[in-house]
């Protein structure tokens, strides 16, 4: 395996690992959103992350 082949392989593996971990984090966030839904006040227009109303 040449240096170019090794570099391209590592690039593809790194990109694939990044996309896979982002997909897994998306699943965790969806699960947490189902387990802990937002409060009614947050849905009525109040910002939940430090927003001033």
Overview of the structural elements:
- The protein is mainly α and 53 residues long.
- 70% of the residues lie in helices and 0% in strands.
- It has 2 helices and no strands.
- The protein has helices at 3-35, 40-43.
Q: Kindly estimate the percentage of residues that lie in beta strands according to DSSP.
A: under 5%
Average pLDDT, all residues: 86
Radius of gyration: 20 Å
Biggest sheet: strands, sense, closure? none
State the helix count. 2
| Beta strands, count | 0
Q: What labels describe this entry?
A:
53 residues; mainly alpha; 2 helices; 0% strand
Please provide a brief summary of the model:
The protein has 53 residues and is an all-alpha fold.
Present the secondary structure layout:
Layout: H1 3-35, H2 40-43
């Amino acid at each position: 395996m040449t240096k170019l082949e090794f570099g391209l392989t590592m690039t593809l593996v790194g990109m694939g690992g990044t996309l896979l971990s982002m997909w897994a984090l998306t699943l965790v966030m969806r699960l947490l959103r189902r387990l802990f839904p937002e409060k009614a006040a947050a849905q009525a227009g109040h910002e939940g992350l430090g927003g001033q109303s």
